[in-house]
Amino acid sequence: MLNILGRPASINVRKVLWLGHELGEPFVNEPWGDGDASRKLDAPAFAALNPNRMVPVIDDDGFVMWESNSILRYLAASRERTDLYPALPRERARVDQWIDWQSSDLNPAWRYPFMSLVRQASGYDDPRMLATSVERWSELMRVLDRQLQSTQAFVCGDTFTLADIPIGLSAHRWFSTPIAHPPLEGVSAYYERLSAIEGFRRYGRNGSP
């Protein structure tokens, strides 16, 4: 059975939980890193699975893997879910492009606003840094909006793919962070479209930013 290790409030863990739901097979979630003293990420048992001491980690019948986006790709490919992760190279590359964009561009842009306004973390209280980061985040959400205005459906076209999992969670974080949100009709329609999907309601639009 697939075992997903990591606290379910983590956005990266929620990616894998959502995909687990879409795969339609049983899985368990061990909430490592949720504050329980027996499940701290620096515990030797967890460090033996992931030397980076970060979640998520999966144990798929003895195959242990970390890095959330790599896990998504592995699970979809190993289950031959070509509806989620196409077999044709150009179609797969388009999915990979948006997954990597979320990780390398969009994710860093939201970090400062999220840590400042949602987590209220120490060291994230510079108003100039906050304004600059919000501006960059908004700029990238406009990139996404143009793509969604073009497809009028999901990130890569008419159908839901693996790319919609990290991007969908990103959209939820966008709407959940208390900043000024420019009107983005494509993103707003996409968010409501995702809300018709049970996996998103359970692991995306579930109260966790």
From TrEMBL:
Protein name: Glutathione S-transferase
MF terms (GO), sorted A to Z: transferase activity
Organism: Pandoraea bronchicola
Keyword Nucleotide-binding (UniProt): no
Gene3D superfamilies in alphabetical order: 1.20.1050.10, Glutaredoxin
Keyword tags: Transferase
Domain GST C-terminal: 88-209
Domain of life: Bacteria
